[in-house]
Amino acid sequence: MLERFVPTEAIERLSQIDLDALRARGVKTLLLDLDNTITPWRSLEVPEDMGAWLQAAKQSFRVCIVSNTSKMKRLETLKERLGIEGVGFASKPWGLKRVAAQMGLAPDETVVIGDQLITDVAGGNMIGARSILVKPVSRDEFFGTKFVRAAEAVIFWLLKRRGLFACPWR
Ligand SMILES: [Mg+2]
Predict the structure, then answer these.
(1) Which member of 71, 73, 93, 157 has the lowest number of beta carbons within 10 Å of its beta carbon?
(2) How much distance in Å is there from the Cα of 34 to the middle of ligand 1?
């Protein structure tokens, strides 16, 4: 039950993720959360290191933003600016199954990366992909996310207590 929330890896910042190591493991597709993973919440500003990492990632992987956002105009702007695919209204975690099926992804060649255990990590694990947890890039978030964070804090605590996962930045 709790195992579904354990990330394959926890890496503080998206731009610190070693692309060569992923390639060496046979990874072909990166599914990236948007808010607080690539940019601060609601922001159109992509930090320089994130932008550079994304451009490098595009050289070797299929890269797609998968976000629960309803702000499609912002998503479209970022997709265009970054030159990558993107899916909004994704309904993670469950919606990742649909997205993976529509994209025709092989789970063992896919990595899901995001800042939340309940949506990103659980979703990645659910489809049998690797999951990488990153630290939220800012503390601002959607009102509803604050409730999810409260539940998430309990999960972090339980995972640590059971010896399943100790998050390095908490
Ligand atoms: Mg997020």
Answers:
(1) 73
(2) 6
* Per-residue pLDDT, 141: 82
Task: From 103, 117, 112, select the one nearest 130 (Cα to Cα).
Answer: 112
From the number of C-beta atoms within 10 Å of its C-beta (0-12, 13-18, 19+), residue 81 rates as exposed
Out of 1.20.1250.40, 3.40.50.1000, 2.40.30.10, 3.30.56.10, the CATH code matching 2-161 is: 3.40.50.1000
144 CA → ligand 1 middle, Å: 12
CA of 68 to the centre of ligand 1 (A): 8
Tokens of 97: 């199954």
**pLDDT value, residue 142:** 81
Instruction: Specify the length of the chain in residues.
Output: 170
Compute, in angstroms, the gap from residue 3 CA to the centroid of ligand 1: 20
- What is the distance in A from the centroid of ligand 1 to the CA of 115? 5
CA of 116 to the centre of ligand 1 (A): 6
Pairing of strands 62-66, 85-87: parallel
Mean pLDDT over residues 102-119, rounded? 97
What is the model's pLDDT at position 140?
82
Against a cut of 0.90, is the pTM above it? yes
Tens digits of residue pLDDT in 128-168: 999 999 999 998 888 888 888 999 999 999 999 999 999 99
